[in-house]
Amino acid sequence: MRTRRSLLDLDDLGTEEFEEIFARTAAFESKPPERRLAGIACVNIFFEPSTRTFTSFNLAELRLGADVVNLTPTDLSYLHKGETIEDTIVTLSAMGIGVLVVRHPEEGFPKSVAMNFDGHVINAGDGTHAHPTQALLDLYTMLEEFGSLRERVVAIVGDVLHSRVAHSLIAGLRRLGAQTVLVGPEAFVPEEYAGEGVRIERSFDAVLGSADVILLLRIQRERFVSMPISDEEYKRRYCLDEKRLARVRDATIVMHPGPYNRGTELADCVLAFAGWRYAKQVLHGISVRMAVLDLLINGS
Ligand code: CP
Protein backbone atom coordinates (compact mmCIF):
# COMPACT_ATOMS: atom_id res chain seq x y z
CA MET A 1 0.00 0.00 0.00
CA ARG A 2 1.44 3.41 -0.84
CA THR A 3 -0.04 6.31 1.01
CA ARG A 4 -3.70 6.10 1.83
CA ARG A 5 -6.25 3.69 3.25
CA SER A 6 -8.15 1.32 1.00
CA LEU A 7 -10.97 -1.16 1.63
CA LEU A 8 -9.84 -4.47 0.18
CA ASP A 9 -11.58 -6.66 2.76
CA LEU A 10 -13.22 -6.23 6.16
CA ASP A 11 -9.95 -6.68 8.04
CA ASP A 12 -8.94 -3.24 6.72
CA LEU A 13 -11.53 -1.87 9.17
CA GLY A 14 -11.17 -1.71 12.94
CA THR A 15 -14.18 -2.41 15.15
CA GLU A 16 -14.69 1.31 15.74
CA GLU A 17 -14.73 1.88 11.98
CA PHE A 18 -17.41 -0.79 11.59
CA GLU A 19 -19.53 1.12 14.08
CA GLU A 20 -18.68 4.41 12.37
CA ILE A 21 -19.81 3.05 8.99
CA PHE A 22 -23.09 1.77 10.41
CA ALA A 23 -23.71 5.06 12.23
CA ARG A 24 -23.04 7.09 9.06
CA THR A 25 -25.25 4.74 7.05
CA ALA A 26 -28.13 5.39 9.46
CA ALA A 27 -27.47 9.14 9.35
CA PHE A 28 -27.43 9.22 5.53
CA GLU A 29 -30.70 7.28 5.48
CA SER A 30 -32.46 9.67 7.83
CA LYS A 31 -31.26 12.94 6.24
CA PRO A 32 -30.24 13.75 2.65
CA PRO A 33 -26.43 13.87 2.53
CA GLU A 34 -24.30 16.94 2.06
CA ARG A 35 -21.89 17.09 -0.89
CA ARG A 36 -19.14 15.56 1.23
CA LEU A 37 -17.19 14.33 -1.83
CA ALA A 38 -17.39 17.59 -3.81
CA GLY A 39 -14.25 17.93 -5.95
CA ILE A 40 -13.29 14.25 -5.50
CA ALA A 41 -13.07 12.15 -8.66
CA CYS A 42 -14.28 8.55 -8.34
CA VAL A 43 -13.53 6.06 -11.11
CA ASN A 44 -15.44 2.79 -11.22
CA ILE A 45 -13.70 0.01 -13.16
CA PHE A 46 -15.75 -3.16 -13.51
CA PHE A 47 -14.17 -6.12 -15.34
CA GLU A 48 -17.16 -8.35 -14.51
CA PRO A 49 -20.90 -7.76 -14.89
CA SER A 50 -22.64 -6.04 -12.01
CA THR A 51 -26.07 -4.53 -11.51
CA ARG A 52 -26.31 -3.88 -7.77
CA THR A 53 -22.73 -2.95 -6.83
CA PHE A 54 -22.06 -0.84 -9.93
CA THR A 55 -25.32 1.12 -9.74
CA SER A 56 -25.17 1.68 -6.00
CA PHE A 57 -21.55 2.90 -6.09
CA ASN A 58 -22.54 5.31 -8.86
CA LEU A 59 -25.52 6.61 -6.87
CA ALA A 60 -23.49 6.83 -3.67
CA GLU A 61 -20.76 8.87 -5.38
CA LEU A 62 -23.26 11.15 -7.14
CA ARG A 63 -25.30 11.75 -3.98
CA LEU A 64 -22.13 12.79 -2.16
CA GLY A 65 -21.30 15.27 -4.94
CA ALA A 66 -18.28 13.43 -6.42
CA ASP A 67 -17.17 13.59 -10.06
CA VAL A 68 -17.88 10.12 -11.44
CA VAL A 69 -16.24 8.26 -14.34
CA ASN A 70 -17.07 4.68 -15.32
CA LEU A 71 -14.59 2.52 -17.23
CA THR A 72 -15.23 -0.87 -18.79
CA PRO A 73 -12.56 -3.24 -20.17
CA THR A 74 -13.09 -1.88 -23.70
CA ASP A 75 -12.06 1.60 -22.47
CA LEU A 76 -8.75 0.41 -21.01
CA SER A 77 -5.73 1.01 -23.23
CA TYR A 78 -3.65 -1.48 -21.27
CA LEU A 79 -5.82 -4.33 -22.54
CA HIS A 80 -5.53 -3.24 -26.19
CA LYS A 81 -2.40 -1.08 -26.71
CA GLY A 82 0.41 -2.76 -24.80
CA GLU A 83 0.43 -0.50 -21.74
CA THR A 84 0.83 -2.24 -18.37
CA ILE A 85 -1.88 -2.13 -15.71
CA GLU A 86 0.68 -0.51 -13.37
CA ASP A 87 1.22 2.34 -15.85
CA THR A 88 -2.53 2.71 -16.26
CA ILE A 89 -2.88 3.15 -12.51
CA VAL A 90 0.03 5.63 -12.43
CA THR A 91 -1.82 7.56 -15.18
CA LEU A 92 -5.04 7.65 -13.15
CA SER A 93 -3.04 8.77 -10.10
CA ALA A 94 -1.53 11.61 -12.12
CA MET A 95 -5.05 12.86 -12.87
CA GLY A 96 -5.58 13.30 -9.13
CA ILE A 97 -8.31 10.68 -8.93
CA GLY A 98 -9.34 10.13 -5.35
CA VAL A 99 -11.09 6.77 -5.41
CA LEU A 100 -10.93 3.70 -7.61
CA VAL A 101 -13.73 1.18 -7.21
CA VAL A 102 -12.57 -2.08 -8.78
CA ARG A 103 -14.30 -5.37 -9.59
CA HIS A 104 -12.21 -8.11 -11.19
CA PRO A 105 -12.40 -11.91 -11.66
CA GLU A 106 -8.89 -12.41 -10.20
CA GLU A 107 -8.35 -12.62 -6.47
CA GLY A 108 -5.96 -9.88 -5.34
CA PHE A 109 -6.38 -7.62 -8.38
CA PRO A 110 -7.70 -4.63 -6.33
CA LYS A 111 -4.76 -5.08 -3.93
CA SER A 112 -2.26 -4.92 -6.79
CA VAL A 113 -4.02 -1.76 -8.02
CA ALA A 114 -3.77 -0.24 -4.54
CA MET A 115 0.01 -0.81 -4.53
CA ASN A 116 0.38 1.58 -7.48
CA PHE A 117 -2.33 4.12 -6.72
CA ASP A 118 -2.04 7.26 -4.63
CA GLY A 119 -5.73 7.44 -3.68
CA HIS A 120 -8.16 4.98 -2.13
CA VAL A 121 -9.11 1.63 -3.68
CA ILE A 122 -12.39 -0.09 -2.84
CA ASN A 123 -12.72 -3.76 -3.69
CA ALA A 124 -16.10 -4.25 -5.40
CA GLY A 125 -15.52 -8.02 -5.60
CA ASP A 126 -12.37 -9.94 -6.61
CA GLY A 127 -12.82 -13.51 -7.84
CA THR A 128 -13.94 -15.81 -5.05
CA HIS A 129 -11.98 -13.79 -2.49
CA ALA A 130 -13.81 -10.83 -0.98
CA HIS A 131 -16.70 -8.38 -1.40
CA PRO A 132 -16.45 -6.14 1.67
CA THR A 133 -19.17 -3.59 0.88
CA GLN A 134 -21.71 -6.37 0.24
CA ALA A 135 -20.82 -7.87 3.63
CA LEU A 136 -21.23 -4.47 5.29
CA LEU A 137 -24.67 -3.92 3.77
CA ASP A 138 -25.73 -7.45 4.74
CA LEU A 139 -24.53 -6.90 8.32
CA TYR A 140 -26.29 -3.54 8.44
CA THR A 141 -29.54 -5.17 7.28
CA MET A 142 -29.24 -7.81 10.04
CA LEU A 143 -28.36 -5.21 12.69
CA GLU A 144 -31.35 -3.09 11.71
CA GLU A 145 -33.53 -6.12 12.35
CA PHE A 146 -32.02 -7.46 15.57
CA GLY A 147 -30.05 -4.58 17.15
CA SER A 148 -27.16 -6.90 17.98
CA LEU A 149 -25.96 -10.07 16.28
CA ARG A 150 -24.40 -11.55 19.44
CA GLU A 151 -25.50 -15.21 19.61
CA ARG A 152 -27.89 -14.76 16.68
CA VAL A 153 -27.92 -17.79 14.39
CA VAL A 154 -27.11 -16.90 10.78
CA ALA A 155 -27.40 -19.74 8.26
CA ILE A 156 -25.52 -19.15 4.99
CA VAL A 157 -26.82 -21.67 2.49
CA GLY A 158 -25.28 -22.87 -0.77
CA ASP A 159 -22.05 -22.34 -2.69
CA VAL A 160 -19.90 -20.87 0.09
CA LEU A 161 -16.66 -22.05 -1.52
CA HIS A 162 -16.95 -19.82 -4.58
CA SER A 163 -18.74 -16.92 -2.88
CA ARG A 164 -16.70 -13.79 -2.17
CA VAL A 165 -19.80 -12.43 -0.42
CA ALA A 166 -19.77 -15.38 2.01
CA HIS A 167 -16.04 -15.09 2.64
CA SER A 168 -16.29 -11.44 3.70
CA LEU A 169 -19.57 -11.96 5.55
CA ILE A 170 -18.29 -14.90 7.65
CA ALA A 171 -15.45 -12.68 8.91
CA GLY A 172 -17.90 -9.86 9.70
CA LEU A 173 -20.32 -12.15 11.53
CA ARG A 174 -17.47 -13.56 13.63
CA ARG A 175 -16.46 -10.00 14.53
CA LEU A 176 -20.02 -9.18 15.65
CA GLY A 177 -20.39 -12.35 17.74
CA ALA A 178 -22.97 -14.21 15.63
CA GLN A 179 -23.25 -17.99 15.44
CA THR A 180 -22.74 -18.79 11.77
CA VAL A 181 -23.98 -22.05 10.29
CA LEU A 182 -22.73 -22.91 6.80
CA VAL A 183 -25.18 -25.16 5.01
CA GLY A 184 -24.42 -27.11 1.86
CA PRO A 185 -22.83 -30.19 0.34
CA GLU A 186 -19.14 -30.93 1.03
CA ALA A 187 -18.16 -29.69 -2.44
CA PHE A 188 -19.57 -26.21 -1.66
CA VAL A 189 -18.90 -26.15 2.09
CA PRO A 190 -15.61 -27.93 2.87
CA GLU A 191 -14.96 -29.00 6.48
CA GLU A 192 -12.07 -26.49 6.77
CA TYR A 193 -14.60 -23.66 7.10
CA ALA A 194 -15.59 -24.81 10.60
CA GLY A 195 -13.95 -22.79 13.35
CA GLU A 196 -14.59 -20.17 16.02
CA GLY A 197 -18.25 -19.13 15.75
CA VAL A 198 -18.74 -21.15 12.56
CA ARG A 199 -20.20 -24.66 12.25
CA ILE A 200 -21.20 -26.75 9.28
CA GLU A 201 -24.55 -28.41 8.68
CA ARG A 202 -25.22 -30.61 5.66
CA SER A 203 -29.00 -30.67 6.15
CA PHE A 204 -30.88 -27.45 5.38
CA ASP A 205 -33.96 -28.93 7.08
CA ALA A 206 -32.02 -29.16 10.35
CA VAL A 207 -31.55 -25.36 10.64
CA LEU A 208 -34.92 -24.09 9.38
CA GLY A 209 -36.51 -23.77 12.81
CA SER A 210 -33.51 -22.28 14.63
CA ALA A 211 -32.01 -19.69 12.25
CA ASP A 212 -32.61 -15.98 12.90
CA VAL A 213 -31.26 -15.23 9.42
CA ILE A 214 -31.23 -17.47 6.35
CA LEU A 215 -28.92 -16.01 3.72
CA LEU A 216 -29.17 -17.85 0.41
CA LEU A 217 -26.35 -17.92 -2.12
CA ARG A 218 -26.34 -18.33 -5.88
CA ILE A 219 -24.32 -21.21 -7.32
CA GLN A 220 -21.32 -19.42 -8.89
CA ARG A 221 -21.33 -21.55 -12.05
CA GLU A 222 -18.91 -19.20 -13.83
CA ARG A 223 -16.20 -20.10 -11.28
CA PHE A 224 -16.03 -23.89 -11.74
CA VAL A 225 -16.20 -26.40 -14.58
CA SER A 226 -18.86 -28.95 -13.61
CA MET A 227 -21.55 -29.12 -10.95
CA PRO A 228 -20.35 -31.40 -8.14
CA ILE A 229 -23.89 -32.68 -7.56
CA SER A 230 -26.78 -32.75 -10.02
CA ASP A 231 -29.03 -29.70 -10.20
CA GLU A 232 -31.96 -31.90 -9.20
CA GLU A 233 -30.22 -33.10 -6.06
CA TYR A 234 -29.11 -29.58 -5.17
CA LYS A 235 -32.67 -28.27 -5.45
CA ARG A 236 -34.07 -31.22 -3.53
CA ARG A 237 -31.65 -30.64 -0.62
CA TYR A 238 -31.06 -26.88 -0.61
CA CYS A 239 -33.84 -24.94 -2.38
CA LEU A 240 -35.90 -22.82 0.01
CA ASP A 241 -39.22 -24.05 -1.36
CA GLU A 242 -42.77 -23.79 -0.06
CA LYS A 243 -42.44 -26.83 2.21
CA ARG A 244 -39.27 -25.57 3.85
CA LEU A 245 -40.54 -21.99 4.09
CA ALA A 246 -43.52 -23.25 6.09
CA ARG A 247 -41.07 -24.46 8.77
CA VAL A 248 -39.25 -21.11 9.08
CA ARG A 249 -40.17 -19.07 12.16
CA ASP A 250 -42.15 -15.83 11.63
CA ALA A 251 -39.31 -13.75 13.13
CA THR A 252 -36.69 -15.21 10.76
CA ILE A 253 -35.45 -13.01 7.96
CA VAL A 254 -34.40 -14.36 4.57
CA MET A 255 -31.70 -12.58 2.60
CA HIS A 256 -29.84 -12.93 -0.69
CA PRO A 257 -26.97 -10.76 -1.99
CA GLY A 258 -28.32 -11.15 -5.52
CA PRO A 259 -28.53 -12.01 -8.29
CA TYR A 260 -30.90 -14.77 -7.18
CA ASN A 261 -31.89 -17.74 -9.33
CA ARG A 262 -35.57 -18.63 -8.97
CA GLY A 263 -36.17 -22.36 -8.90
CA THR A 264 -32.62 -23.17 -7.76
CA GLU A 265 -31.83 -21.67 -4.34
CA LEU A 266 -35.31 -20.25 -3.78
CA ALA A 267 -38.88 -20.71 -4.96
CA ASP A 268 -41.13 -17.80 -5.97
CA CYS A 269 -43.02 -18.03 -2.67
CA VAL A 270 -39.91 -16.70 -0.82
CA LEU A 271 -40.33 -13.35 -2.61
CA ALA A 272 -43.74 -12.96 -0.93
CA PHE A 273 -42.53 -14.05 2.54
CA ALA A 274 -42.91 -11.32 5.19
CA GLY A 275 -39.29 -11.79 6.28
CA TRP A 276 -37.77 -11.47 2.78
CA ARG A 277 -35.26 -8.59 3.08
CA TYR A 278 -33.69 -8.44 -0.39
CA ALA A 279 -35.09 -4.98 -1.25
CA LYS A 280 -33.79 -3.60 2.05
CA GLN A 281 -30.34 -5.04 1.32
CA VAL A 282 -30.29 -3.34 -2.08
CA LEU A 283 -31.45 -0.01 -0.63
CA HIS A 284 -28.91 -0.13 2.22
CA GLY A 285 -26.24 -0.84 -0.38
CA ILE A 286 -26.33 2.79 -1.51
CA SER A 287 -26.04 4.34 1.94
CA VAL A 288 -23.45 1.83 3.19
CA ARG A 289 -21.29 2.67 0.17
CA MET A 290 -21.80 6.38 0.84
CA ALA A 291 -20.61 5.76 4.40
CA VAL A 292 -17.52 3.85 3.21
CA LEU A 293 -16.62 6.57 0.70
CA ASP A 294 -17.14 9.27 3.32
CA LEU A 295 -14.99 7.45 5.89
CA LEU A 296 -12.14 6.92 3.42
CA ILE A 297 -12.18 10.49 2.11
CA ASN A 298 -13.15 12.49 5.17
CA GLY A 299 -11.92 10.23 7.98
CA SER A 300 -13.45 9.52 11.36
N1 CP B 1 -24.40 -8.66 -4.98
C1 CP B 1 -23.69 -8.30 -6.07
O1 CP B 1 -22.44 -8.16 -6.01
O2 CP B 1 -24.44 -8.09 -7.18
P1 CP B 1 -23.90 -7.51 -8.57
O3 CP B 1 -23.02 -8.59 -9.18
O4 CP B 1 -25.11 -7.21 -9.39
O5 CP B 1 -23.09 -6.28 -8.28
Domain count: 2
Radius of gyration over all CA atoms, rounded = 19 Å
Residue share in β-strands: 15-25%
Class derived from helix and strand content: alpha/beta
CATH topology of the largest domain: Rossmann fold
Could you state the order of secondary-structure elements as H and E?
Answer: HEHEHEHEHEHEEEHHEH
Number of strands: 9
Regions with little confidence, pLDDT below 50 for 5+ residues: none
Major pleated sheet: 5 strands, parallel
Distance between the termini: 20 Å
Mean pLDDT across every amino acid position:
95
Approximately how much helix is present in the residues?
Answer: 25-40%
**What small molecules does the structure contain?**
phosphoric acid mono(formamide)ester
CATH superfamily (homologous) name of the largest domain: Aspartate/ornithine carbamoyltransferase
CATH architecture descriptor name of the largest domain: 3-Layer(aba) Sandwich
For the record, what CATH class of the largest domain applies? Alpha Beta
Report the total helices: 9
Shape: globular
Strand order of the largest sheet: 7-6-5-8-9
